[in-house]
Amino acid sequence: MPSLIHKPTRKVVLLAAGAFGLVVLGAIGAFVVLLSGAYSTAATTQHFKITHRLLDAGLKFSVRSYANGIEVPDLSRAGMLERGIACYRTHCVQCHGAPGIARHAEGRGMLPIASDLAQSAREWPPEWLYYVTRKGVRMSGMPAWEFRISNEDLWSTIAFLTQLPFMTHRDYVELDARSRDLSCRAPTEVPRERSPEYAKVVFRQYACHSCHRIEGVVGPKSRVGPALVDWSRRKYVAGVLPNNEENLVRFIRDPQAVSPHSLMPKLDVAEVHAREMARYLMALE
Amino acid sequence: MLPIAAVLLLGCTHESGYEPNVPGGNAERGRRAIAALECGVCHEIPGVPGAWGHVGPPLVAYRGNVYIAGKQPNRPDVLMRFVRDAPSLAPDTAMPAIAMSETQARDIAAYLYSLE
Asked: Is the whole-model pTM more than 0.95?
């Protein structure tokens, strides 16, 4: 039917116009629903089943694609399980629970709900688990743990996760007790290839944009702290210290030590990350 | 286009996670053993005629279950032990110990893991 290509028939034109019309109508409809306030953002309103399935599938395809090529180190090295459960205890059990151990209140009514990791670890290969743990999951509440946990301990966490499906409650409790003195270590390195884009991620990973409007960083219209714009023209940090990179790092890492009674809390910003932030801000003219 | 949509909707991508396999187990023999031992009096078991019991949990898609009886990891060695002697692993369970050979237990485990 080559004639169709050269000279569309009336039928084809009508069909195309109809399809386009439907898309436009759909978009207008969605917009009206949004503006009318009819769409519920309550966490008590579950997604449609098909939406849920689509999101699940989308996550899986995305993780599979992005985790492709990640090399899994030897996960059976001595001490990995102990270090892994230390991280799990500190950062994961709150939302994901453990065998025979309930997740905390904040992990119970989330939408979407955080997975039970015994099942995830049974079904997903370690590199997928690593990728999701490291990078987090958008629109789900799962943070990117690469900003909290060193790469070595991320792999320890994965080593622990791969064993989780085969643990009873007792196994878990015993391993937990055995590693009680261990802590989960924070990252000490940033990627060698740094960029303003990376600095923006760092700001967002420490929730800076929840209080500050930061030039170049997409986020809420926050007016809790001062807007961080034209920063290099500022004379003082928090009205106390001369504005330079070193002092910024100092302030970001421990605001109240620099400026007593400051409402800006100490966010346990790793030194490397504070430096990223300071460099980014000092480059704003 | 359609197959892609179908895969998307069903979410049935292939993963390479844990695969419980029973070396030396014969699923077809296991299916016959399940029928002979009348496991279906208490359990719903796909592929076994008359296995519609509602006393215990349905053993549908058993391969993907994370736990056995909510107490033990779902692994071949544990499952083989559990089908023969459930009370040894779950003391308060209503499921009785069932006299069977080790081969039968192995075959039954193989059958249950064939249910996806």
From this structure: no
